[in-house]
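User: Here's a chain of 346 residues. Predict its fold as tokens.
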Amino acid sequence: MRVGIPREVKDGEFRVALTPAGAGSLECEVVVEPGAGEAAGFADEDYVARGAKLGAAWECELVVKVKELQEPEYRRPRRGQTVFGFQHFAPHPGLLDAALASGATFIAFETVGQSGGSLPILAPMSAIAGRLAVQAGAWCLQKQNGGSGVLLPGLEGMAAGRVVIVGAGNVGSNALAVARGMGAEVSVFARTGKRFPALRKRFPGVTFQTGRPIITEADLVIGAVLTPGEMSPQLVSRDMLRRMRRGSALVDVGIDQGGIAETSRPTSHSDPVYIEEGVVHYCVPNMPSACARTASFALEAAVLPFVRMLVRDRMSMDLVTGVQVRAGKLTHEKLARDTGRPYSPL
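Assistant: Prediction complete.
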């Protein structure tokens, strides 16, 4: 089997799925598209020095990439090929149509391990996105970006900014760590309180509540709800945002699965924000790419064991839960339900 590492074409996507060291550790031929690792600091020469070849990555039997297919890539996959990466089919009907038409197998990083709840590949990217969300939100609050001019840490004798985090999982807990470390006043809302006891021990003074979020007084709202393989639940209505102070900010981390706010729509690193209902929206679907080098190392550490399995033609239960499309059929039950497509069990 040959493994291909293509160059990412999504706007602002600077990560690479495998570093030169990771590529060199595989016991098979690895073909790297020229420039694939350049934006993360990995030169073509570094891959060649580790035994990889430069060439047409899409001609390989296994393609390992970071982000979902972009329109120029829709015709690249072919029958009998496996594409291993983030897929995010649910919000993009055209993308799903292209995947089904290709006849290829698509294994989604975001649902690998879903049956056991570990999500080993998604977890490090969620952690990075959660930490970046507070930084992005603080930037959105600056006046030059349309924000209210609130400094989240506050100042001696001055009140700190108020942050509402919607979700208490991996994204939410990492956002909480940064927001509290910064000195902001933080409230966390979640559908259930099962994670609250552990978080209360780590973060005394934080308010934890279940149910629909209360955001009227928030300076920054962070959407941190994730349901792997499914559309994000809409928990923030337009009317709720309208009641916030003008210049407040929303960072919707789950935008790659549709986002939690009625007003959310995908943006990009080159054009990250827009203002709606007086609220600055930051809805970049590939946030970890802003820290591409760190994110590439973290992604590789999670991905490499599964790539080795695929090279040896082995499938673990974790990998099976990642298979969303195979030979023109949709094989992920929740994705089929959300998209109204027929479901074909593996």
